[in-house]
Amino acid sequence: MLSQILDRLRDPIVFALPAVGLLVAIEMLALRFGDDKNVKGFDARDTRASVLTGLGALVVSTLLRAAALGLYAVVYTYLAPFHLPADAWWTWVVLFFGVEFLLYWYHRSAHMIRIIWAGHQVHHSSEYFNTSTALRRKWAQWFEKLVWLPLPLLGVPPVLVFTMHSFHLIYGLFAHTEKVGKLPRPLEFLFVTPSHHRVHHGTEPEYLDKNFGSILIIWDRMFGTFQPEGRRPTYGLTKQINTYSIWNIQVHEFATMAREVRGAGTWRHRLGYLFGRPGWRPESEKQQDTSPALPAHAQS
């Protein structure tokens, strides 16, 4: 078990870093010398914040994955009713769809439950949409590590779980770009494309809380959260944070949530600020505010 956990620390993402750097550089050059007036491009401060945030997230992820793999190994060894062979092709098929399905629902819950959104909003905080935006990841990853528990419980070897998740993250790099338009219809129907993911990062009302898929877009089509791209999205949060500080990017929503919890008058309101939808407020406060309400994470 220990040797498997130590071997897992050799994250595929680490080995992909040179290719990631090359991809970012290529897109920067394409945007710098391109003539597309509708593409916002890069900002050096924003890109630096995304890269530094991503490096910090990689360190945190490595530490938390080591702890999570120990838990997964216990669940797999003592609670799983059967064990799937690690070298069977169909185990990888089960693993792929298992990770896809759990990622969809975890990603969707991250937009619906504020204490999870407080971490996930990091990824949405950039007002730019390019490959460096894919690197802007949260450091508060405890929910993300717990979401995979059903897989070892169903007999998936623990060492494979994060390997598959890493491949999903690497795929996400190619979905963060404005340089790729809509792809052929069969690809747009089945897979998460840059067009689909631009919608996910949009702040327009029709784009909020849409297109949660990781590699496949079929879950959004099945569960009613699919939205095709129409007008060019405006990226970021509906209430922009206007900072390039990697610390403030990570903690600003947690700090706001903590202040509101401390100021709440009842335990029901405290729980609402923690576990309600982002932007949740007591009815008494809503009645005092006559401005139109925004859906989901609009007020985060």
Automatic annotation (TrEMBL):
Whether Manganese counts among this entry's keywords is: no
Keyword flag Oxidoreductase: yes
Query: Which keywords describe this protein according to UniProt?
Result: Lipid metabolism, Membrane, Oxidoreductase, Transmembrane, Transmembrane helix
Where is the protein situated, by its record's location annotation?
A: Endomembrane system
Where does the chain cross the membrane? 12-31, 51-76, 88-106, 146-174
InterPro entries reported for this sequence: Fatty_acid_hydroxylase (IPR006694), Sterol_desaturase/TMEM195 (IPR051689)
Offer one Pfam family short name for this entry: FA_hydroxylase
Q: Which domain of life is it from?
A: Bacteria
Q: Where is the Fatty acid hydroxylase domain?
A: 92-225
Membrane topology of this protein: Multi-pass membrane protein
Q: Which PANTHER family match?
A: ALKYLGLYCEROL MONOOXYGENASE, STEROL DESATURASE-RELATED PROTEIN
The protein's name in its UniProt record: Sterol desaturase family protein
Q: Which organism is it from?
A: Streptomyces decoyicus
